[in-house]
Amino acid sequence: MINYWAIFFLIAAGQGLFLSLLLILRNVSKNKFLALFISLFSLTIGHYVTFWMGLFSKYPHLIGLSATLPWLFGPTLYLYVKQTGRQLKVKRSSVLHFAVFFLHFLYLTPFYTSSAANKLTKAQDSTLYSTYQLIINWGQTISLLFYAALILYTVLYRGSNNRSKSLLYMSGLFIAFSVSHASYYVMVYGFHYVQIYDYYISASMAFFIYWVGYIGFLKPEALNGETTTHQAATLPTNKPAKYAHSALNDLYATQLLDQLKQLMHTEKPYLNPELKMKEIADKMGISGHHLSQILNEYAQQNYADFVNSYRVNEVRQKLRNPRYAQEKIIAMAYDAGFNTKASFNAHFKKQTGLSPSAYKQQFLGETLPKNS
Q1: 190 vs 89: which has the higher pLDDT
Q2: Distance between CA 215 and CA 168 in Å, rounded?
Q3: 281: phi then psi, degrees, rounded to nearest 5
Q4: Per-residue CA distances from 174 to 37, 74, 141, 147, 370 (Å)
Q5: Which domains does the chain have, with CATH numbers?
Q6: What is the pLDDT of residues 126-165, one digit of tens each?
Q7: pLDDT (tens digit, 9 = 90+) per residue, 282-303?
Q8: Residue 194, class by beta-carbon neighbours within 10 Å (0-12 exposed, 13-18 middle, 19+ buried)?
Q9: What is the mean pLDDT of the chain?
Q10: pLDDT surpassing 60 at residue 352
Q11: 359 or 242, greater pLDDT
Q12: Other residues' Cβ atoms within 10 Å of the Cβ of residue 102
């Protein structure tokens, strides 16, 4: 009989690994922790699937491969969230967050290096590891709950002043996962194990993977802890006179706004300093009048502010990246599509409340040379 749950979770695990690769390829240092976190979730789900499919008896070396991974969930997500605030560099002392993982891994090394027959024998002995398993299961649960609280505290009180809603949602999802993980062991130890309990845990991990993928696709700057000035689409009650006879309804307009944002993120037409509204409208297959209406009514911005906000975000990402510490800010502005220094400075300060040099100093102050 086909196990549709196993197929779904196997697909989710594969997509999670692919998402991790994309995050790494973006070459943003903080995203490497998020990529590691998603990879850990994906590998854990994949390992669960091999158990549900009864592969442990055929391939004993699969037994216990994910046993130590939950120790890594909290620290990796915490370090990702921590890097999105003012402290961009991870201190060497951060390795202490992984101490329990290394100790557990060392403890299991004799088991990992033992023969397949020995692994099967130990796995089938339900009394051999009962106390050990109780300690590990609840230890990992306490670790998850602790880091869930620490991550929420970091987002609320230790992050940058422009707090990202995406990070708040992410911390909420991790709290939900940690609570579901604790509930799982309450049901297992308090009642009776049923395989569907495993599905609950895996479903929460799969949901997290898909949520990160969705946010990363629509608003990649949100994964960098950046707040964005692009307001959510609003449904105006009274249309301005110039749009009173427009055939554009609210549902279609919000769909087009989503399409527009996706176009800006994927194709980055704003990098062209001579970009005209008609060019974007043509790419979307709509009229310039409709594009103007979408921006004014639903994005609450005019064309120039909308396009230049993406250009500013392009520069912001470079200003926060140590790789570009020696590059001139005006060169970044021209590369992002600005025509003049005055226009760049005006739009940058309007969007961030800081001058470009002050913004750079805020995030890379410790890495800049004294004569910078």
Answers
A1: 190
A2: 13
A3: -60, -40
A4: 11, 9, 12, 9, 41
A5: 4-224 (1.20.1070), 229-301 (no CATH), 306-372 (no CATH)
A6: 665 578 888 999 999 999 999 999 999 988 876 544 456 7
A7: 888 788 888 998 999 888 899 9
A8: exposed
A9: 82
A10: yes
A11: 359
A12: 12
Handedness of CA 202, 205, 207, 210 (dihedral sign): negative
pLDDT band at 102 (very low <50, low <70, confident <90, very high): very high
Give the residue-averaged pLDDT of 88-113: 88
Residue 257 tokens read as 């706004």
Single pTM value for the model: 0.58
CB 20 within 8 A of CB 42: yes
Contact 61, 119 (CB under 8 A): yes
Three-state SS letters, the chain: CCCHHHHHHHHHHHHHHHHHHHHHHCCCHHHHHHHHHHHHHHHHHHHHHHHHCCCCCCCHHHCCCCCCCHHHHHHHHHHHHHHCCCCCCCCHHHHHHHHHHHHHHHHHHHHHCCCHHHHHHHHHCCCCCHHHHHHHHHHHHHHHHHHHHHHHHHHHHHCCCCCCHHHHHHHHHHHHHHHHHHHHHHHHHHCCCCCHHHHHHHHHHHHHHHHHHHHHHHCHHHHHCCCCCCCCCCCCCCCCHHHCCCCCCHHHHHHHHHHHHHHHHHHCHHHCCCCCHHHHHHHHCCCHHHHHHHHHHHCCCCHHHHHHHHHHHHHHHHHCCHHHCCCCHHHHHHHHCCCCHHHHHHHHHHHHCCCHHHHHHHHHHHHCCCCC
* CA quadruple 52, 58, 61, 66: dihedral, nearest 10: 0
Q: How far apart are CA 136 and CA 142, in angstroms?
A: 10
pLDDT, residue 372, reads 40
**Residue 18, CA distances (Å) to 9, 34, 205, 290 in order:** 14, 13, 15, 36
